[in-house]
């Protein structure tokens, strides 16, 4: 590759950009050779250019992605101009109208013959911004590589365009180097626009059935494993057992650690330095690995916005050294909305725990406004308490789902009221608080918000019930239901005598799995958020012991649930800014925020005192909601405590791909720890405003890279109409006078 040609190629990528020296990129090996279409050798001394712009693109591979570094979407309204992408792509109606306006301004400077010859070419080129593969066409998949001026065109198509319309190149780009070198040189021009992946250049990308067959659907590999991505949201947590929101429109997230500390995370990702609540001196927790005791549950009152009440569930040791579970009510501080008042605690219920394990811990409010409490069976193994065990004994509160009304008091003096429609209120042998029974140790339950439009499924209670030694199960809780334990474990008998009892009448799980799949289920959520439409209706859960993520999909005709594994961090599917390729193994809990986005918490060392826990958010790389549909407007809250910015620890997929070779010393960075540096090769040069700009904005998830990136499709109008003529290869190109 000679020096002049290399300079032209690099100018194509860096026109109007101020580009400092860039670190060498260490990616997969890129062997030498020649492009069959261009004849250009790849074995050149320019290491950065060869590796970054050619090899790296091939290794990231093409995947659906827009110029704003997000997945494509289904436009909410019909596209009038770029109609090829009206079902799925990267343009909404506003963007489509902007491209159409640009097209007609360009065509105003082309003569009638040029309209016929070049109109379709110019439209195609402009509309590639709407392609679901726009980022690949413009080399925008990796924020550390510069954007192209023009989209990648297949060589044959490019040759036809250049043969018929080379005089229009100056209308599509203001790059003088391209105009000077390429208006008369088809080979050079088409080499510049050539893509390393022949399948992804335009128009081949439209014809490739493999790329377009399931475009917009959740990606699954050959084994049916759903390909999802993750972003790191928080880290350094000590066994994070839950994350909840207050449903007060502030979009704050409250994350609780097992030892009894609750932190406040703000919508901008920062954490307040002072905790919302710190009761670690009361909570019974130890540094022992796998100890199930501690702070286990929390739920905000449905009217928290008005009454400031919330509820907690934790282990503690009473004065007589008896281990107990306490469920109590607290209030937010009158002087600080981000602090609870620890002196406001009002005990609702205390249960003596006969063993240190199987402590339950879930608190949640149903759509009926009542508080649901999920207790464990008392511990040890096989529920050995009494003739039938705690779980089958309706006069015991262990091994149950309880339902109480926290807004009233009972005539007998209890600090809560019994809902009048509780199933066993008229049974003298049962506790009136019991809503369902026969559960072993339900760990993490959630209320289904229901379908966003039809509300189907709203109010269903999903729970993961940890098994004894054979099966883990997922249940949907119904009023008065007997979930079988200890008679059954999953679908199978555990206690043969109890299992054969004709009066058992137990509710079977919607799904159960054996020890070949996992050893300790962690219940999850039905996704009902706005950001990832493909995930709507999927129940996503996991296994604590082996870190496996899974999803259940309901067949509405048969009411059966089908399980699929979830695979995280695929290099091809998740090559987006901010996406990570791995997570800590021990999955402790799942959560959803106020907008319905789905998260999970896990740790690499399951001790209540070890700060190795992290919070992750699920992302569907195949499809997102249209821009603006999920826009949040959090109610601002006054903060008295210092804000601690989020500092990511996990390396993103793009960082891993762009890591310099281990033989080279890492470049020094003046950036703060945990903050992604902005490469000045991506900064847009300040230019005078023009009537039409094509811009791509990096999302906030890209860290500091939030400045607008001007796509290089700018143009300068000539003073007069351009006569576009069909010329032969030897005919000199007509000159274009620019304004």
From TrEMBL:
<dbReference type="Pfam" id="PF07995">
    <property type="entry name" value="GSDH"/>
</dbReference>
<feature type="domain" description="Glucose/Sorbosone dehydrogenase">
    <location>
        <begin position="238"/>
        <end position="565"/>
    </location>
</feature>
<protein>
    <submittedName>
        <fullName>HIPL2 protein</fullName>
    </submittedName>
</protein>
<dbReference type="InterPro" id="IPR011041">
    <property type="entry name" value="Quinoprot_gluc/sorb_DH_b-prop"/>
</dbReference>
<feature type="compositionally biased region" description="Basic residues">
    <location>
        <begin position="705"/>
        <end position="726"/>
    </location>
</feature>
<feature type="compositionally biased region" description="Low complexity">
    <location>
        <begin position="727"/>
        <end position="739"/>
    </location>
</feature>
<feature type="compositionally biased region" description="Polar residues">
    <location>
        <begin position="665"/>
        <end position="679"/>
    </location>
</feature>
<dbReference type="InterPro" id="IPR011042">
    <property type="entry name" value="6-blade_b-propeller_TolB-like"/>
</dbReference>
<dbReference type="InterPro" id="IPR012938">
    <property type="entry name" value="Glc/Sorbosone_DH"/>
</dbReference>
<feature type="region of interest" description="Disordered">
    <location>
        <begin position="657"/>
        <end position="739"/>
    </location>
</feature>
């Amino acid at each position: 590759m000679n020096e002049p040609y290399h300079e032209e190629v690099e100018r194509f990528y860096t026109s109007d950009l101020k580009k400092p020296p860039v670190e060498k990129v260490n990616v997969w090996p890129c062997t030498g050779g020649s492009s069959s279409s261009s004849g250009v050798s790849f074995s050149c001394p320019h290491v950065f250019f060869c590796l970054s712009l050619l090899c790296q693109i091939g290794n990231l591979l093409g995947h659906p992605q827009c110029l704003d570094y997000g997945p494509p979407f289904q436009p909410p309204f019909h596209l009038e101009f770029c109609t090829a992408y009206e079902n799925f792509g990267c343009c909404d109606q506003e963007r489509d109208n902007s491209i159409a306006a640009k097209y007609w301004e360009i065509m105003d400077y082309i003569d009638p013959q040029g309209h016929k010859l070049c109109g379709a070419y110019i439209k195609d080129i402009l509309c590639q911004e709407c392609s679901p593969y726009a980022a690949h066409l413009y080399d925008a998949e990796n924020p550390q590589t510069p954007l192209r001026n023009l989209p990648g065109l297949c060589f044959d198509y490019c040759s036809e365009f250049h043969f018929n319309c080379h005089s229009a190149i100056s209308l599509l780009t203001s790059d003088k180097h391209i105009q000077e070198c390429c208006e008369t040189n088809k080979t050079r021009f088409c080499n510049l626009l050539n893509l390393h992946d022949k399948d992804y250049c335009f128009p081949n990308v439209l014809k490739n059935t493999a790329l377009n067959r399931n475009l917009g659907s959740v990606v699954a590999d050959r084994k049916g494993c759903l390909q999802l991505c993750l972003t790191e949201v928080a880290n350094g947590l000590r066994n994070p057992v839950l994350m909840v929101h207050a449903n007060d429109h502030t979009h704050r997230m409250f994350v609780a650690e097992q030892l009894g500390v609750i932190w406040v995370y703000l919508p901008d990702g920062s954490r307040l330095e002072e905790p919302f609540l710190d009761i670690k001196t009361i909570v019974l927790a130890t540094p022992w690995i796998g100890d199930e005791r501690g702070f286990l549950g929390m739920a905000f009152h449905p009217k928290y916005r008005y009454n400031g009440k919330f509820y907690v569930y934790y282990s503690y040791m009473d004065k007589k050294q008896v281990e107990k579970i306490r469920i109590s009510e607290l209030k937010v501080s009158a002087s600080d909305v981000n602090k609870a008042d620890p002196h406001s605690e009002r005990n609702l219920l205390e249960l003596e725990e006969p063993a240190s394990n199987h402590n339950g811990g879930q608190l949640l409010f149903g759509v009926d406004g009542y508080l649901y409490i999920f207790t464990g069976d008392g511990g040890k193994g096989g529920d050995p308490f009494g003739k039938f065990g705690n779980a089958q004994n309706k006069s015991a509160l262990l091994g149950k789902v309880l339902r109480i009304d926290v807004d009233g008091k009972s005539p007998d003096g209890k600090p809560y009221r019994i809902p009048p429609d509780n199933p066993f209120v008229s049974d003298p042998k049962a506790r009136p608080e019991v809503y369902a029974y026969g559960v072993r140790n339900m760990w993490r339950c959630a209320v289904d918000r229901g379908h966003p439009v039809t509300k189907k499924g709203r109010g269903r209670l999903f729970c993961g019930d940890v098994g004894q030694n054979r099966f883990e199960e997922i249940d949907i809780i119904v009023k008065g239901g007997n979930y079988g334990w200890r008679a059954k474990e999953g679908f199978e008998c555990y206690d043969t005598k109890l299992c054969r009892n004709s009066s058992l009448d137990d509710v079977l799980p919607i799904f159960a799995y054996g020890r070949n799949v996992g050893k300790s289920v962690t219940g999850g959520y039905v996704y009902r958020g706005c950001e990832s439409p493909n995930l709507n209706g999927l129940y996503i859960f996991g296994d604590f012991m082996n870190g496996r993520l899974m999803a259940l999909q309901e067949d509405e005709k048969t009411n059966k649930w089908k399980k699929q594994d979830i695979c995280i961090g695929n290099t091809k599917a998740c090559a987006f800014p901010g996406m990570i390729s791995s997570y800590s193994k021990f999955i402790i809990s799942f959560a959803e925020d106020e907008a319905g986005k789905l998260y999970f918490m896990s740790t690499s060392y399951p001790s209540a005192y070890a700060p190795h826990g992290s919070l992750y958010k699920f992302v569907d790389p195949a499809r997102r909601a249209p821009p603006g549909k999920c826009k949040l407007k959090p109610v601002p809250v006054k903060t008295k405590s210092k804000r601690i910015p989020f500092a990511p620890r996990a390396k993103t997929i793009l960082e891993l791909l762009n890591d310099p070779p281990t033989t080279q010393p890492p470049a020094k960075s003046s950036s703060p720890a945990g903050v992604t540096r902005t490469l000045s090769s991506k900064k847009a040069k300040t230019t005078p405003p023009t009537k039409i700009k094509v811009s791509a904005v990096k999302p906030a998830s890209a860290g500091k890279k939030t400045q607008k990136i001007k796509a290089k499709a700018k143009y300068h109008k000539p003073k007069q109409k351009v006569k576009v003529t069909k010329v032969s290869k030897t005919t000199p190109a007509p000159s274009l006078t620019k304004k």
